Amino acid sequence: MKYSVACNWDPALLDRLSKESASVDSLFGQITDDPFGGGRGSFLAPKGNRDEAAEFIAEARRRGFHFNYLLNGACQDNLEMTREGNRILFDHIEWVASTGADKVTVTLPIMLVWLKRHFPEFQVVVSSWARVANCKRAKYWENIGADEIILGEYATRDFASLQAMRHALNCRLEVIANPSCLYMCYLDTNHINMMSHAAQGGHVSGGFVVDHCQVYCQRLKLAQTDELIKARWVRPEDVGDYEEIGINSLKLLERFRNTESLMQVVRAYEDRRFDGNFVELLTLPRRNAYNPPNLEYLIKPDLVNIDVMLEMADIFGYSFSDVMQIDNRALDGFAEHFKTHDCYHSSCEECGYCKRWAEKAVQVDEEKRQAILDRFDRFIEAIIERRTLAENEPLDVSHIQVSPEAASVLDSLMAFVPPPLAEIARMKTINGAAQIAGQHKNSKTDEAIGPEAIAHAFWLGTPEPSRDPLRQALEQMGLWQHVASAEGAQDR
């Protein structure tokens, strides 16, 4: 079995794959603000510009890897058929060709046809977003020139369809190994288009998105453990089942994982065994496994209420694996059922297979789960009540005195703040520091706020996913002990 691995633009990833992997055949990736848009919004995707990407791709090719550049946005706002829109897309494809990338992934059929006519040097891959899950749909794509099809997750445990497609098709077939998307997700079409535009450079949204689909999805998986069992992942131990059918490769997610986390996934699937919490291999929140979100795409004061958006950033800062554990060894034998069972034409409630396995293999920290569910529910309520759209209340901090030392600390900490949020973050930090220092906002006291209060207020205002580098900075400034002491968590 060959593997296609997510690219996070970290040169160390190429070093690790070259030294530690024997089966990785290709990497897939995309620059930030790509004109095509793509599968991960710019707030999630690893940052990379054209120069960095070209250097990475050239090195990947030099080391013998294929590189699959993603042109897989599901919607181009109909601009692909206008002179200007089409020119932008084709100029970008020419740049992709110049990097040495030898594969491209598309979702739109017209893009495949154009690529085959004008860029015959590319192998063209059909995105999983095309939702190919049966012979008829796959044959359409092969007939217009597809070299490879990444099958929709719906088909991953439909062994009858997999076998039929392999028998009927000549093109390569790839299955995504470690997704966590809900089976037959009702949010699917909405989420695909939402992410496409959230990654699309030049789009009117500027990369902004309130990813309510992800909020609803994760809440459901937390609340109903069998939904995570139903998700169409492949255990490392079951790779042989797909190899036997003739599936050519498995796709390993996720592009916003850090290199160590990606290598954990690669090792598990190459070894075809994983002894641990299976949740760690899936695309679920986990501290120290993912790059922090690019908050500058989310924090748009002219579009959204900043306080509520910071709450959204914060609720994804937990580790799913701290709340839910799936003993991978307890799942031995799980896949056998799907070799004969037809999920597509069955009722989950009547079948109950995944629910029984969830009861057997999943363990939950109920206190942690309920705390996180409460946070999700508050945010969902804010969306429904449209509080995300509330105007940002201006803060007047002109009466609050800040010591020169504290002002210097605040200036240094502002490096962690996306530019659009800078003014608001500065005022909120000063206001919060005043409250911490015991100063009422209307106080006329001459006592200036010190650096300890500024550091603590800034920490409290920072979303949890972005706190690791901030803690390091505070430690270097000699201020972390004040924050830790105030938080009652010196060893956090």
Strand content: 5-15%
Per DSSP, the total helix count is: 21
**First and last CA, distance:** 41 Å
How confident is the prediction overall: mean pLDDT? 93
Shape: globular
Work out the helicity level: 40-55%
Which parts are unreliable, with pLDDT below 50 for 5 consecutive residues or more? Answer: 440-445
CATH homologous superfamily assignment of the domain at 2-206 and 233-273 = Aldolase class I
CATH architecture of the domain at 2-206 and 233-273: Alpha-Beta Barrel
Strand order of the largest sheet: 1-2-3-4-5-6-7-8
Structural class: alpha/beta
The CATH topology annotation of the domain at 2-206 and 233-273 reads as: TIM Barrel
Number of strands: 10
Give the CATH level 1 class of the domain at 2-206 and 233-273: Alpha Beta
How is the biggest beta sheet arranged?
Answer: 8 strands, parallel, barrel
| Radius of gyration, CA atoms, in whole angstroms | 24 Å
Characterization of the model:
It is a single chain. By secondary structure, the protein is α/β, with parallel strands linked by helices. Among the domains are: 2-206 and 233-273, Alpha-Beta Barrel (TIM Barrel); 404-487, no CATH class. It is 44% helix and 9% strand. It has helices at residues 11-20, 50-62, 83-99, 109-118, 135-143, 159-168, 188-198, 212-223, 225-230, 239-245, 259-271, 306-315, 320-323, 348-351, 353-361, 366-384, 404-413, 422-436, 451-460, 467-476, 480-487, and strands at 2-6, 24-29, 66-71, 103-106, 123-126, 148-150, 172-176, 249-252, 324-326, 362-364. Strands 1-2-3-4-5-6-7-8 form an 8-stranded parallel beta barrel, surrounded by 4 helices. Helix 4 (109-118) links the parallel strand 4 and strand 5 (123-126). It is globular. The protein starts with a strand and ends in a 5-residue tail after the last helix. The relative contact order is 0.10.
